[in-house]
Amino acid sequence: MLNGTCAALNYNAVHELVDLLHLHHDSSFWSAVDQVMPDYAKDMKWLEHNGAGIILESDQ
Ligand SMILES: [Zn+2]
Hints:
Elements: H1 3-21, H2 27-36, H3 40-49
Helix pairs in contact: 1-2, 1-3
The chain binds zinc ion.
């Protein structure tokens, strides 16, 4: 497994948890993600470049 895989799956887990607290992907959602995982943007980029759309939600 590539190193990025763990980080990306970790991001996905954080995203799912924050989804429980914030119903919409608005600024409060992203600031909550940022608090838990300050470098989440890097992991999102990894997901984009590795075709992980399958594990992202369809509401993105
Ligand atoms: Zn979500």
